[in-house]
Amino acid sequence: MTDPYPCLRRVSIAIAAWSILYCLIQFGVLGWQTGYVRARQWEWENRKMPPDGGITYFEARHPGLYTIYSETPERRRINALFAIVLVALVVCIIHLVTSVGLLVGAVKRIPWLLFIWLFTVVATIVTTATYGIVWWAGDVFNEQLTMSIAEFGLAIVNCPCFVIVFLYYLRVTGKLTSSKPHTPDPMLAHRYDPKVPEWRQSIRERPSEHFLKKLKRQERRRISAAWDAYEKAQRERGSTPHAQNMHSPDYRQPSPYIPTPDYGYNSHQQHVPRAEYRPGHHTQRRYSSSPDKSGLRRSRSKSPTARRVYSKKHQEQYTNV
């Protein structure tokens, strides 16, 4: 089983984006519900029926206490809905702030930002689900029924989000570790050690900022030193007289080095036509008008194969340096 940490981190970032969008949606829905519930309160405001038809001394002495005993179930439910929707709206505002913190904490691996978001998401789930359930306690139709079902469904969606972020929080804080090693590829001969050392849990997954700055500083110095050495070598090479390296085959100092072979006699060879050329050493070259026939007789006295070998050997001696 592979390490789920990268997956938890990416999903937590996606959950943070969803939470921000969810809060913006809730602002519109809860704002609409606040106005709707307040209008229903005003509609049922005067449905109180005192026994004697007026305000008694006890009711005047303790205003509001007698109303609790005399209010109808519909008015009692609408008062509860008004209180719940106000609490849900305030919690949603706080949840928007913590959702932005969750996005930052998931990206930069900050545990306390993840921890705060867990409280606000639980409060959001409880308030919105309760608001939908209280609406179902009475007669609800049309858009209020649709709204209550949608609120309850969104509360259910936030439950797995809470679990995923909680697991990511445990991984970031180091409280959730696995003692089971990574299962290797069966085609590989290397096997992982099943015993995970204790000090492995104390190693930071990302080096400290001070250490990273030190590595970058050393890398810049190494590159700068290499360039300084290269420029110094170029200056020294440019200051060296060209005459000293005229005949040097050094590839670091290219020079017009053209090797001239020395054959031991005048380099200006006389052109010999192909028809008049006779195989043999260059000292034995003869023309058809030469009175010395000894070299020619010696070359002709051999067999055709011997003459070819003899000619080839002396040609190599003549041409090779």
Can you tell me about this structure?
The chain is built from nine helices and no strands. The chain is an all-alpha fold. Helix 1 runs antiparallel to helix 6 and helix 4 packs antiparallel against helix 5. The longest helix has 39 residues.
Question: Using only CA atoms, what is the Rg?
Answer: 49 Å
- Cα(first) to Cα(last) distance is 71 Å
Count of β-strands: 0
Report the total helices.
Answer: 9
Structural class: mainly alpha
Shape: elongated
What share of residues is helical? 55-70%
Strand content: under 5%
SSE order: HHHHHHHHH
The residue-averaged pLDDT reads 74
Summarize the structure.
The chain has 321 residues and is an all-alpha fold.
Helix and strand layout, with pairings?
Elements: H1 5-43, H2 57-61, H3 65-70, H4 73-108, H5 111-136, H6 142-173, H7 209-239, H8 294-301, H9 304-319
Transmembrane segments: 12-32, 80-105, 112-137, 149-170
Biased composition (Basic and acidic residues): 230-239
Keywords: Membrane, Transmembrane, Transmembrane helix
Brief descriptors of the model:
transmembrane helix; transmembrane; 321 residues; membrane; mainly alpha; 9 helices
